[in-house]
Amino acid sequence: MKVRHAxxxxxxxxxRSGYEIKQYFENRLSYFYDPSYGTIYPTLKILEQDGLLTKxxxxxxxxxxKNIYSITESGRAEFLECLVGPYEPDTVRSDTLMRLFFGxxxxxxxxxxxxxxxxxAARKNITExxxxxxxxxxxxxxxxxxxxxxxxxxxxxxxxLTEVFIAKLQEQExxxxxxxxx
Length: 182
Fold this sequence. Notes:
Arc Repressor Mutant, subunit A, mainly alpha, 182 residues
């Protein structure tokens, strides 16, 4: 799903500020979709220009004005059309996996460091997702429960796999590349 449609989806139930949209992604969707502010705000501008959302400026005392975005009927129609449109296969974008793929150019301790960071990130994600499940799980529609459970299981899989490969690397004899200071 393109970021424009994800933002429209976040606005389907209620109007939100750009900050609140980003928080929604970070708190509810980050385990599978997490656009940056640098992506969200330009997309909001385009969606407004395309007539898919409106912006209301709210004046605040002692603070900068807040922009509240609301989805229009055209925005709802485009979002719903996206939902029933052609399915786009998932793509994986992972800094960890890219580093590991090219890991033959660094020493074993660096790779173990990457895997250790990935392991800790998976543990953190599991904790956060389990908290979401406890807080919202029974009140979530079944498709949302599926996506949450998918995130939990994916992170358990990452955790297990990183632990297995850390152990394998620790047992492995140093390679000639690791002995050679050049």
